[in-house]
Amino acid sequence: LVNVINFKGSVKDAVQILAEKQDMKIIAGGTDLLPQMNRGLVRETAIFCVEDMPELKQIKKDDKCLVLGAGLKLAELYNIQELKNHTSVLQAARSVATPQIRNQGTLGGNLLQENRCMYYNQSISWRRSIKKCFKLGGDRCYQYKNSPECVALFQSDLSPVLMSFGAQVILEGPGGRREVNLEKLYLSGGKKDVHPDEILVGIKIPLSSGVYKSAYTREALRGSFDFPVVSCAVSAKIQGNIIEDINIVFGSAGPFPKVVKEAKDMITGKTLEQLEEIMPQIKKASRKYIAPFSDTHYDSFSRRIFADELLQSALLKLK
Ligand SMILES: Cc1cc2nc3c(=O)[nH]c(=O)nc-3n(C[C@H](O)[C@H](O)[C@H](O)COP(=O)(O)OP(=O)(O)OC[C@H]3O[C@@H](n4cnc5c(N)ncnc54)[C@H](O)[C@@H]3O)c2cc1C
Ligand code: SF4
């Protein structure tokens, strides 16, 4: 039996309750958490529902940044006027799962969803047939036999896209607020830098002057339903025809999204037309960021081929 608190008050009061009561799990839309509870993958016996907290639904904009409330539903993102120039955010939000899940799942839940693996996301009876791996408190990893930690895939669609814009997350706990670069939120072993008594309040997207173009591409078994096997987010500052700055981030590439560090030096200063000429070098530099992870449908070789194609089509969409 699970105790549920459906909280409608302020973030300040919410974090006090979370700090006082141990063993509570936050739930927003529940589209990630509830399937895990059904499979006996969640230890907590009480859940704290943040779905109706008004502060998590706010949208704020000034000259420097746009802040999106963590409690905004994925389907609500398409209609946010302030996001109309962030093409890749809209593309990513539209590509998550099904309309039902997009109507229920939230932005915050998307960024904090659990990493997935075919040896973990299984029923209790299936899991009983093998010894526990790291993610379940055991001493081994079935994906990479010699890995010292869990390497389960993080398959969020929104995270790589927001990372490509240099977004930060706003977390509030009993000790106050802190802001963390989205890139730093994801720790090794599939862990996230969020304490159990902290609430993800919002996501801050910096707004820079100049023309920004962005694109998001993904490969999935069934485009209308499934998690991405690999995805690619590109965000670039373009002046006339010259690319002045660029960020390329791969999603579902490993335990957290992977920023292609070499991309800035390789592409900055080039024209959009020159992109095709240097495409082989960009692909070569990018490929190593795709972890050799296998699931029931795809091997690591196929995932790297998808990554090449996704990168090319995302870059060509900048034209
Ligand atoms: C069939 C299916 C297909 C899916 N396909 C995709 C897909 O294609 N792409 C994709 O990205 N995702 C996919 N998902 C995962 C998930 O549904 C979405 O990512 C969704 O956005 C999660 O949001 P939620 O509000 O439902 O999260 P919840 O399930 O409520 O929460 C997820 C996690 O975030 C934490 N959390 C949520 N909000 C807060 C907060 N404000 N503060 C602190 N912690 C918080 C919860 O404690 C939990 O650990 C899929 C899920 C299913 C069931
Ligand atoms: S990646 Fe390894 S440790 Fe993590 S869930 Fe899969 S098998 Fe377990």
Tags for this entry?
four-stranded antiparallel β-sheet, five-stranded antiparallel β-sheet, binds iron/sulfur cluster, single chain, 319 residues, alpha+beta, binds flavin-adenine dinucleotide
Topology:
Blueprint: E1 3-6, H1 11-20, E2 24-27, H2 33-38, E3 46-49, E4 59-61, E5 65-69, H3 74-77, H4 87-95, H5 99-104, H6 107-111, H7 124-128, H8 158-164, E6 168-173, E7 176-181, H9 182-185, E8 199-206, E9 212-219, E10 230-239, E11 242-251, E12 258-259, H10 263-267, H11 274-287, H12 300-316
Parallel strand pairs: 1-3, 2-3
Antiparallel strand pairs: 4-5, 5-8, 6-7, 6-8, 9-10, 10-11, 11-12
Helix pairs in contact: 11-12
Bound molecules: flavin-adenine dinucleotide and iron/sulfur cluster.
3D architecture notes:
It contains twelve helices and twelve strands. It has a five-stranded antiparallel β-sheet. A four-stranded antiparallel β-sheet has the order 9-10-11-12, sandwiched between helices. A three-stranded parallel β-sheet has the order 1-3-2, with no helix packed on it. Strand 10 (230-239) and strand 11 form a beta hairpin. The protein has 319 residues and is an alpha+beta fold.
